[in-house]
């Protein structure tokens, strides 16, 4: 039996191999050993995710390509360039989502970009919010990041509601920001600041309430 413990923040903490868990979800670091589950998630949710992602060709779903992508993601995690996570249900150990903190920049910035998704059939249960609270506590407390930025298309109301619930604040709009589904799309820019580093640490945000539970391996 192993437990996830809070430690002093570091620029390259080793993400627990058994993952980190909340009541209903488990977050695991991207790894080629998860190729089968990840590929099934991408295929099952292709049509549903496509409006919010870059165009995917057939090669994107090739098992070898998925495995190489997971290898590259694992390497970025090991280098401290990203924290790219896969989300599972604790109940059935099914891969049900993604939670990606990319483009980590240290120095005076201490920031990254967040992307996420949950399986179509499991929307509307609070699972993504639960996973993100858990992950955000990790990137703030263990990795010591200061700012997490999350951007969404204006018409992505589910994403907007989720980010607002987590305490993300709207900072503006960017024209023609990302090429999504084959078209350059405007985006709403939002961010969440490490609650301990705002106004001397007095800002109370919902993300602080989520702390890892013990993971039984
Ligand atoms: C964006 C996305 C992650 C939102 O998923 P979601 O399931 O709506 O998000 P949450 O986990 O916050 O769930 C909240 C909903 O669950 C409901 N809910 C039900 N049971 C709940 C519980 N036990 N706890 C919390 N919320 C619960 C809430 O009322 C809320 O519903 P509402 O938004 O209709 O009010 C999902 O739609 C998705 O993956 N979309 C495709 C990819 C995408 O758009 N990614 C973001 C690109 S910017």
Automatic annotation (TrEMBL):
Q: Name one Pfam family in it.
A: Acetyltransf_3
Keywords in alphabetical order: Acyltransferase, Transferase
All copies of domain N-acetyltransferase, residue ranges? 39-190
Which GO terms of the molecular function aspect are on file? protein-N-terminal-alanine acetyltransferase activity
Looking at the keywords, is Transferase present?
Answer: yes
Q: Name one GO cellular component term.
A: cytoplasm
> Would you say which domain of life the source belongs to?
Bacteria
- Hey, which family's this protein in? Belongs to the acetyltransferase family. RimJ subfamily.
Q: What is this protein called?
A: GNAT family N-acetyltransferase
Name the species this protein comes from.
Pigmentiphaga aceris
